[in-house]
Amino acid sequence: MAILACAFITALLITLLIVVSAPLHNRLSGDSDRSQPQKFHTRTVPRIGGVALFGGVTAACGPSDLLNSQAGQLMAGLLGASCVAFGAGLLEDITKRVTPKQRLLATVVAAALAGWWCDALILRSDIPGLDTLLLVAGVPMAVTAFAVAGVAHATNLIDGFNGLASLCMAMVLGAIAYVAYEAGDLAVAHLALAGLGAVLAFFIFNYPRGLLFLGDGGAYFLGFWVAETGILLAVRNPQEVSPLFPLALVIYPVFETVFTMYRRRVVQGKPMGLPDAAHLHSLVYRRLMRPGKARSDQQLKLRRNAMTAPHLWALNALPVLLAIVCFEDSTLLSLVIVGFAVVYLTIYRSIVRFRTPRVMVRQSRLPGESVFDEQVTVRSSL
Hints:
Layout: H1 2-20, H2 22-29, E1 30-31, E2 45-46, H3 49-59, H4 61-67, H5 69-95, H6 100-118, H7 130-133, H8 139-157, H9 164-182, H10 186-206, H11 215-236, H12 245-249, H13 251-267, H14 280-288, E3 289-290, H15 297-306, H16 309-325, H17 330-352, E4 362-363
Helix pairs in contact: 1-3, 1-10, 3-5, 3-10, 3-11, 4-5, 5-6, 5-10, 5-11, 6-8, 6-11, 8-11, 8-13, 9-10, 9-11, 9-16, 10-11, 16-17
């Protein structure tokens, strides 16, 4: 637990420093653009939370090296590789000039470096047809780079509301740490605990009031760390852990990304990279969160923002918990993945058609505030 504590305390101190000093650097680090349809914050907020995550995980290298030299070597290798993805995202947070394609390319390079330095390569998938391709030279590296970049991008995609991406990824890292301990792989368990400690410290300041955002640097670093630890767990423990286990853990952000690409390109005929407000989390915010009374529009939006993430936390927790139960069985994990897709589409369809179960519609309020009895119809922005 020394790794978890070290990462948590370090990230907590860095996060506190960033928040307190925000007036000094908000001109560079602040997210002041609220014109985009996927933006729901009401004030300028620092979007360099990735600095705290990276700092927390880096600090965990010390006790990791003392406890287990192999864990220290793996962590140093992953940290070195992650600098490329994290750096590209952080540069975008500060300059606003790094395109999504450039960030994806940086993550691909980071994944390739991790594959080279840490042997983090997907060699088996238990997906019909793909395992045959993985026998071809160069294909494992390409598939791994694609998977890691996809998870990093998916993490950034769901980073739309306070606490959403950070707690979802914390669940995944906790699951990886648990299964790694079950498999006897302390090195991977230490990697997951380092990430878990750092993201939990960030979460304290991110939810519910959004004092600090992950930003692209934080989202890409967190997605990269989650993807790589999951790959390493499956690769290093082929007899104990199914290669589908990491995919089942991140199926919520991954399926959200795939469905978004399909929806934009096929259904709407728009570019896949065009921002919109039709993500599942956006629909939950707009259609399920009843505003209630508030002293100001800012407080109203903050309430609705804070009450949106718990719906998606529950959705994310479902496949994570099921995957933990059957982490060694590819057949059952396949059912978890397919089952989640069906549940996601059913929920999405019901919200779009205004047939959401009454239990999912909640009066929005911040923790500790009273519930108001005002009936308000939430109109869709679509």
